[in-house]
Structure formats: structure tokens, C-alpha cells
Amino acid sequence: MQELFKYNEKKLNIIHKYRTERSAIAPTSVNLNRIGTSKRQTFINRLSGELAITIYMALKPGNIDDQQRLLADFFDEDEPKKLWFPREADKYYLAIQSGDITYDTSQGYVIATVTMIVPDGVAHATASKDFTFVPNSDGVLEATIINDGTDWTTVDYTITHNHENGFLGIVSEYGAIQLGRISEVDGVDDTKIVVLANNSKGNFDDWTDGTTFYENPNKKAVTTMTADTQYGGRLGVLPTNFTNTANGELFGAIKEKVFTTPATDWYLWAQAWYETTVMGQTGSWGLDIIDEDNKLIAGMSLDKTDSAGNTAKMRFNVGTSSGGARIIKEILFEPTYWENSNPYGGESRLKNRNPFDIRKEGSKITFFWRGGYYAFTLPELAAKKAKRIQYFVGQYNGRTASQLVTHHYLNNLTFYDLKQQYWRDVPNRYPLGSVVYIDGEARKPYFNNMLRLSDEVIGSHYFKVPPGETKVQLVCSDFSTPLPTAKATIQEVFL
Predict the structure, then answer these.
(1) Minimal CA–CA distance to 335: which of 310, 359, 317?
(2) 182-188 long-range contacts, CB within 8 A, separation 24+
(3) What is the distance between the alpha carbons of residues 222 and 246, in angstroms, rounded to a whole number?
(4) Strand-pair partners of 469
(5) What is the pLDDT averaged over residues 307-324?
(6) First to last CA, the chain
(7) What is the per-residue pLDDT for 411?
(8) How far apart are CA 341 and CA 344, in angstroms?
(9) Are 287 and 207 in contact (CB under 8 A)?
């Protein structure tokens, strides 16, 4: 029995057998230009067009109306999807239906015909290929990329730092990518970064139950939250049933981490999961940095009071000169599973794209939201020192625990003191253990899974590599030893 093709990772079992027709190569056009009164033309460029694949499908006996609906649904996509054929098991096309699906019953059975357009005109390898960077005879990291495809292809890079680093340069004969600052130094008589909290995989054993939530004391602790290792680890698990025994505006649970040494300049990185599963769920999620006087410095909250629909608010909160709290930025979002509407939903969590960070440097406080940063200058907070982190999860007065937002968790968290005084190793742009990922097709760099366009040096060229061998070198700050661990990844392309 003939193995069926797949479109968007699906097969259609009403197909008995099929055959395909396609041109050997996508059509091309050549642009020429006649300069002045010259009798001859000059070559400008050569452009490749789209590739067309026609699929003829003999359908199994059945109701033709039902089969037409199934075929229409099978091929109905808003953008090109993977089209895979068993005879080219190691390749796929990015294709989309064009024109009508036609039906021929003249041979006593139904033959359906569909034309699939491949906009980029090429096939892509189903498997990627990795190439490890190793030191060459000069001690420079180098990789030889072997492209066995028949066309140029983009290159992704994954760089894991084994030492602090301030600069990355990726160089080949086809271009160069530069990130960071080549002049960044390693050590000065200044300050150092110290990790004050590092919690992952559900291990929050060094956090304790809190009694007062200082950002808003009306958020009352009426129960306790726990952490577990489910979903990669989470803090914020509440009992199934709890009630507003404190008669607060909000009621739930508080966890906190108190620092032995307060920090004036600090950096918090964490991952959030805030997602409803039923319309009308409500609840509050809050993570705040508190000073030595138990006053708010800065924090972020995810709040949903919409008891009918699915609208929530992301709020950046900061302290005031009088010791109170205020909202400095508010953004509406829908706390669904999907990444395009919720950066802290299930899809983002599964793709490891749910981090956020907050940084305080003197009077400047910077918040992260959806690949961008929001910075605020607040002189009244410049001298405030972070003494504790507090985390609250709870429900609004008048609502029940069963109506709480389903997923209300903190996955992982790291908190740094950025300027502990001593002769220090400079807190470089890329700390030990940090990972830089460069998406060659999108032409974007990521730092610890967060988009970091500001690192890119003007003039960087995200080059492709042709068929055959290409040597690529990776350079970094001269103090970054041992050298980073790095690899280049390609997905071959075939005409």
C-alpha cells in the first residue's frame, strides 16, 4: 500500500493512492539594464520564483460531498506549512494551496487534483546538522560548516559561556556578526555581582511563609502556598479550598525570601505562568522587591478582575517617596494558552519564552515585557536597598477559590546584587553559564531566551553559507577563558 504524504504533520486517510508533478526547479528571471547609449546590456540580478507541485489523489469510495469537505479542511491554511512526501523522506516543502481543488469522476472513481505553491521554491532538510567550534592552531574557535544541500542556507549559533564575556564576533568570508562591546574589560576596583537567590525546578526551600504583603497589605495571607516539581517546577500551589477569613480585598498566600545583605543595585530574572482555562476566572499574581523599611521598591503584578470575559492587566509597580506604592505602567492582555496573546501562558512556557526581568541601577528601574524594555528614572528610590522578595497569589473578595485563575505560578527565579563592593571581576554582558542564541533566519540574537537586539553592533551581517565547506570563526573577549562552548546549526536547502 502506498504511504501517504503529510501536510502540516497530518495525513488524510480518504486517499487511496496519489502521484505528483513538479518542475525540476523553480522558474527564474534575469534582470538586465542598458546603461546610456550602450548597445549591450548589463546583468543586474537573477530572481527565483515559486515552485508548483500538483498532487493527483485517487480517493477511496465514499460520499463525494463529505470527501470534498475533508479535502478543503485538510489543505486550508493561512500560511505555508510543511508538505512531506515519503519518496523524499529526508526533506519537506513549505507549501500552501493555490487555486481550486478539482474533481474528475470519468474513470469510475474520484480523482482530486490540488496545486501546492512553494513560495521559496526549495525543499528543506527534515533534520538539522550541528558543527562544533574547536580551537584552531592559533587558539581561535573555529567550525567547518559542511552544507550538502544545493543552495545557500542560514546558520543558527548556540554559545554557552564558560566564563564572563563582553563581546562575541562570528566571522566568515561571507560576513560578520558582532554582539556586545569589544572594549569591555574584566576587572576593576569597583563592585561585584553576587547571587542572593537562585531557585529552580520547584526548589524554593529557602523561602518562608509571609504574613504581610508590603506592596499592598490588603492582600491577606489566609493559607499557605507550596512548591513542587510538576511542569518543570513551580511555586504558587494553593489548597483546593480556602476562604477570605481575613476579610481582605484579596486573600491567598505569601512566600518571601529575606536577604542577609541588602542590595542597592540589583537584577531579578524569573519565569511566570499565568493562564486561565475558563472565561471569567479572576485572581492576582504579584512579585515585589521590598526595602529595609518594608516599603515597595519595584515589582510586577498580573491581575484579572474581569469575571465575565478574559481580560487581564500587567502592571509595573514602584514605591513612592512617602513609602506607598503606585502603578507606573499598565498593559492589557488576554491570559490564554497562546503566546501571541499571553507571554506568560502555556505555549510560552513550553517554548521556554516566559522569562521576565527587573533591574535597578541607582535611580533607574527597568522592566521587561514582550521583547522590549521600559525604563523609569525615580530619584526617590535611588538609595533604597532590596531586603526581601515577596510573592503573592490570591483571589479577590467576593470570589471563591474555585474561580481562581488556573495557572498562577512562578517557575524559576534568580536575584543578583549587582554592586557588592570589592575588587571585582566586572559583571560582564554575558555571565558565566549564560547562553547566547543567534537565529540566523530571523536575524535576531537572544540572551538566556530573551530577545536582545541592543547587543547587536551596527553593520552586523547575518550571512548564509553556500553548498560545500565554509570556515567560521568565533571570537570573544580576551579575558573569557576557558573559551565558550559553541555550535553552528544548519538546515540544508535543496533546489
Answers:
(1) 310
(2) 182/477, 184/426, 184/428, 184/429, 184/477, 185/426, 185/479, 186/425, 186/426, 186/428, 186/477, 186/479, 187/423, 187/424, 187/425, 187/426, 187/479, 188/423, 188/424, 188/426
(3) 6
(4) 146
(5) 97
(6) 29
(7) 93
(8) 9
(9) no
Spatial distance between the Cα atoms of 316 and 328, rounded to a whole number of angstroms: 6
Q: Is the pLDDT of residue 285 over 70?
A: yes
The C-alpha cell 500500500 sits at 1
Q: What is the dihedral of CA 159, 161, 166, 168, to 10 degrees?
A: -20
Name the strands in the sheet holding 134-135, side by side, starting at the edge strand that comes first in the sequence. 134-135, 141-147, 468-476, 167-172, 175-180
All 3 cell numbers of residue 354? 516566559
Closest alpha carbon to 332 in 350, 358, 305: 305
**Which three cell numbers mark 305?**
478582575
**What is the gyration radius of the CA atoms in the chain, in angstroms?**
28
Peptide bond into 482 cis (omega under 30): yes
pTM above 0.90, yes or no: no
Q: Which three cell numbers stand for residue 346?
A: 502555556
C-alpha cell at 288: 515585589
The residue count of the chain comes to 495
CA-to-CA dists, residue 34 to 28, 30, 45, 48, 208, angstroms = 20, 13, 13, 22, 78
Euclidean distance between CA atoms 169 and 456, whole angstroms: 10
Q: Which three cell numbers stand for residue 443?
A: 536575524
CA distance 478 to 135: 14
Statement: residue 100 has pLDDT above 70:
yes
Whole-angstrom Cα distance, residue 93 to residue 238?
47
Instruction: Give me the mean pLDDT over the 337-363 stretch.
Output: 96
Return the C-alpha cell found at 176: 560578520
What b/e readout covers 270-291, taking b as 16+ CB neighbours within 10 angstroms?
A: bbbbbbbeeeebbbbbbbbbbb
Task: Reply yes or no on whether the pLDDT at 280 is more than 60.
Answer: yes
Average confidence score pLDDT of the chain: 93
Q: What are phi and psi of 74, to 5 degrees?
A: -60, -40
